[in-house]
């Protein structure tokens, strides 16, 4: 990229972060630790919502002189804003609900709570809290399920636009096997989704995602209608759930006897592709892995949810295999997931891989929740990295105020050790500031 215009008029919204920082120059699954770069005293210039220059502070400060306001974090760590590839707006209030497994948990806790979203006031309050909580956890991009009520997506988009946060979201499509009051019809779901696409897709940093909840709660007619929405609206995203739980997989087999697999149900309706992301994908056969790879469909790996609901152990090694690669991003999947903290999600992803006999490196974990997650959402050129040209989303981490963290940090010998420790033992208490599109959206000391 050519050098930025450092003499640009002072009315440009320009600011800078200074301190230790990390970014990626590739995938650590392909290039190993070399893919992660570290600068112990970096300067990152942000202008009009984008990063425009990054380099050692000693080299850049004299060039920028008094033309930029610098926020300095000498003892922090500046990292790319986290990308959560799968979570549910209406499920903050069901996190940590005791239950057995997926299908009981949905009926007992999730559906009743989602029914509250018929009320626009609930939608507005929950959307506001949701975006506050994302910022305080360092999450700057999310692929979000609203509820079946169009007003829930409307409320989320309205407030996300105001905050200039990058949100991909959709109203849930669900026309069977769910309670009265939480069902649409194939036609109503189509019409409501189209109206939301017209109003919000591509507005500011927002994108629409066509969102059939999962195959069991949509009739074949509704899945067809979802495929038609995708066909009629190039550029929209697709999100749903896939092969999370063995009872669910058996149910799909009985509901769709003509499909050759769970994934084939979605394929038949035109719901695969580079902009499609499916949560979980734990119980997949070889043909489904091959179909994900061929169709460039991505998976959201949700380790805290998979452990909490006893769903199973995701085969990350298989997704990353060079013969049938599948893009994967990490996700909280709240409320099945037990934390919105990307640090905790990375720690649990490490443990899930350990249980399958694979040790994931620190660089790989961090990539899976930043640039790799952005790539899984087909947004790798926009978000997920501290790179000139990328949107200016960043997080400043620092745990010096926590005696145990300060004590442990005194023993850390490299950036990889520090990143691994943060992933293994960290949580939202480490988030000091979250920057969204070049503005400080969360500051721990002011909250
Ligand atoms: N499958 C269908 N709906 C859901 C949901 O809300 N959460 C999870 N974890 N799985 C699902
Ligand atoms: Zn989910």
Protein model, in words:
- The protein has helices spanning 28-31, 57-64, 102-115, 120-136, 150-163, 186-200, 220-232, 246-255, 262-268, 286-295, 303-308, 316-319, 342-355, 362-368, 371-376, 403-409, 415-425, and strands at residues 14-24, 36-47, 50-56, 69-72, 77-80, 82-88, 139-145, 166-170, 172-173, 207-212, 237-242, 276-280, 298-301, 328-330, 394-397, 431-436, 439-443.
- It is an alpha/beta fold.
- Strands 6, 7, 8, 9, 10, 11, 12, 13 and 14 form a nine-stranded parallel sheet that branches.
- Helix 6 links the parallel strand 9 and strand 10 (207-212).
- Helix 6 (186-200) packs parallel to helix 7 (220-232) and helix 13 (342-355) crosses helix 17 (415-425).
- The relative contact order is 0.15.
- The site of guanine has 11 residues, from helix 3.
Topology:
Layout: E1 14-24, H1 28-31, E2 36-47, E3 50-56, H2 57-64, E4 69-72, E5 77-80, E6 82-88, H3 102-115, H4 120-136, E7 139-145, H5 150-163, E8 166-170, E9 172-173, H6 186-200, E10 207-212, H7 220-232, E11 237-242, H8 246-255, H9 262-268, E12 276-280, H10 286-295, E13 298-301, H11 303-308, H12 316-319, E14 328-330, H13 342-355, H14 362-368, H15 371-376, E15 394-397, H16 403-409, H17 415-425, E16 431-436, E17 439-443
Helix pairs in contact: 4-5, 5-6, 6-7, 13-17, 14-17
This protein binds guanine (GUN) and zinc ion.
């Amino acid at each position: 990229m050519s050098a930025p215009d450092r003499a640009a008029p002072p009315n440009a919204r320009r600011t800078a972060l200074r301190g230790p920082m990390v970014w990626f120059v590739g995938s650590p699954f392909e290039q190993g630790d070399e893919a992660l770069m570290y600068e112990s005293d970096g300067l990152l210039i942000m202008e009009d919502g984008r990063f425009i220059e990054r380099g050692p502070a000693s080299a850049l400060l004299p060039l920028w002189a008094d033309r930029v306001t610098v926020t300095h974090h000498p003892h922090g760590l500046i990292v790319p804003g986290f990308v959560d590839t799968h979570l549910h707006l209406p499920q903050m209030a069901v996190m940590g609900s005791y239950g057995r497994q997926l299908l009981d948990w949905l009926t007992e806790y999730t559906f009743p709570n989602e029914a509250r979203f018929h009320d626009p006031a609930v939608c507005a309050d929950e959307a506001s809290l949701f975006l506050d909580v994302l910022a305080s956890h360092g999450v700057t991009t999310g692929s979000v399920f609203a509820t079946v009520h169009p007003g829930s997506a409307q409320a989320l988009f309205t407030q996300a636009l105001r905050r200039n946060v990058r949100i991909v979201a959709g109203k849930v499509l669900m026309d069977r096997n769910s309670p009265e009051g939480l069902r649409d019809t194939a036609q109503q779901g189509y019409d409501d989704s189209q109206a939301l696409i017209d109003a919000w897709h591509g507005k500011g940093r927002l994108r629409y995602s066509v969102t059939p909840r999962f195959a069991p709660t949509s009739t074949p007619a509704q899945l067809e209608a979802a495929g038609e929405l995708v066909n009629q609206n190039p550029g929209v995203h697709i999100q749903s759930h896939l092969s999370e739980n063995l009872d669910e997989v058996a149910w799909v087999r009985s509901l769709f006897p003509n499909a050759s697999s769970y994934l084939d149900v979605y394929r038949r309706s035109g719901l695969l592709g580079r902009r499609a992301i499916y949560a979980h994908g734990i119980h997949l056969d070889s043909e489904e892995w091959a179909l994900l790879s061929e169709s460039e469909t991505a998976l959201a790996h949700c380790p805290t949810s998979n452990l909490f609901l006893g769903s199973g152990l995701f085969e990350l090694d298989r997704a990353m295999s060079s013969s049938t690669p599948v893009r994967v991003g990490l996700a909280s999947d709240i409320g099945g997931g037990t934390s919105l903290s990307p640090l905790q999600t990375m720690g649990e992803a490490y443990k899930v891989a350990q249980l399958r006999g694979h040790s994931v490196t620190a660089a790989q974990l961090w990539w899976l929740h930043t640039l790799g997650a952005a790539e899984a959402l087909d947004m790798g050129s926009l978000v997920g990295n501290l790179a000139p040209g990328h949107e200016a989303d960043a997080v400043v981490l620092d745990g010096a105020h926590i005696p145990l963290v300060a004590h442990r940090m005194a023993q850390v010998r490299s950036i990889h050790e520090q990143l691994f420790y943060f992933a293994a033992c960290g949580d939202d208490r480490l988030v000091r500031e979250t920057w969204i599109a070049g503005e400080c959206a969360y500051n721990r000391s002011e909250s």
